[in-house]
Fold this sequence. Notes:
This protein has helices at about 10-20, 60-65, 90-100, 115-130, 160-170, 175, 180-200, 225-230, 255-270; strands at about 30, 40-45, 70-75, 110-115, 135-140, 210-215, 240-245. It is α/β, with parallel strands linked by helices. The protein has a 7-stranded mixed β-sheet, with helices on both faces. Helix 3 (about 90-100) crosses helix 4.
Amino acid sequence: MASDTPAEGCEERCVDVAGAATGPAIGADWVRRFHPSPRPIARLVCFPHAGGSASFFFPVSEAMSSSIEVLALQYPGRQDRRAEEPLTSVQDFARNAFDALQPWADVPLVFFGHSMGAVIAYEVARLFDDADTVLLGLFVSGRRGPATYRDERVHLMPDEGVVSEIVNLNGTDSGLLADKEILSMILPAIRSDYRAIETYRYNASRKLRCPITAMVGDNDPKATLDEVRTWQEHTSGDFELQVFGGGHFYLTGHQAAIINAISDHVLMACGDSARPAVRER
């Protein structure tokens, strides 16, 4: 995973790849495909954290086996979509992402979401499950279970408070946050993302049928091990908890281990005769 910044220098490349004639045009504004695979056995869909963008997962796409095609979601209000109004509810994120991913569901899907992205990925997984398409797996990172709440109000803080929160989590280059021009571009989306995740409330329903793997840093201030372990209550399938050294953005230092875990899971699942049904495009 890359350090997430508002000026990655690959925005145009992201748009060109997503809109290429070789891939679905529907939802091209939401979906980024950095490294197309001609015959993938599955697709890994990556959901960024609050304030994050698709380019955060460029290194994952670059390193992943070519048999697993990586898609990364680009939320409104950032990078090449910065002229668009940011979304302010997890449900809106989920519905839009679900619609955008329909053309890509001709092969089995596996989701990976970090922090806010974990909850969005979970809600999109529920929509797929309701449509009778069961994921190969849901990987949730750096986030407590969806029914486990904290009274967090970062989205109501003044700009200085929001910046302080970001700096403390070590997810964005602090030098960029000191640039007032860049800050003015990225703060609206960051604040909207925090509003979405901090006002999210779990709506009880049946459990997911896909397995859930929860990943977390052992020193994450946003999610304790007990809080992360509650993800097991939201699946009727297998559950696994994987703990890594580090804080909220532990994943930047454990990219190879995370990629290997996802790849191994996909290869084992696709070799099983109980492979989930998928829809034709």
